[in-house]
């Protein structure tokens, strides 16, 4: 399923779910749903480092405010961008493509001589790695 279709389905489900809860309880939870989803999208955008990608969404703050002001557009847009970032399809602002984990790649055991822990995400990567395959952190070269 395409990222756009997934985002539209998720957005529609939230809207219709909110409407259904309102019909059952007599309360309108739509505003609360918009605020909570905007807060989540802003937090998640910060967690994935949205600001380092060329997305049209410049920062987590823009995602949060956009979610509050124009939720019906900003929330699905963020969901599409989020899926594309996870798939490694969005270039970084410096024009390079991010390094994404290879599907089925063998994990390196933590604490072995041929591994090191990433200081940004704490995942174990090969000692010779220059870029973390999980979060894209660039390791500084150290004198041996």
Structure description:
With about 140 residues, this protein is mainly α. The protein has helices spanning about 5-25, 30-45, 60-70, 70-85, and strands at about 115, 125. A two-stranded antiparallel ribbon has the order 1-2. A hairpin with a 6-residue loop joins strand 1 (about 115) and strand 2. The protein starts with a helix and ends in an 18-residue tail after the last strand.
Spatial shape: elongated
Helix amount: 40-55%
Q: Largest sheet, described in full?
A: 2 strands, antiparallel
Q: Quote the beta fraction.
A: under 5%
Order of strands, widest sheet: 1-2
Radius of gyration: 19 Å
In terms of structural class, how would the helical and strand content be classed?
mainly alpha
**Helical run tally:** 4
Unreliable stretches (pLDDT < 50, length at least 5) are 102-111
Oligomeric organization of the protein chains = single chain
* Beginning-to-end CA distance, first to last residue: 48 Å
- In sequence order, what are the helices and strands, one letter per element? HHHHEE
Number of separate strands? 2
Overall pLDDT score: 82
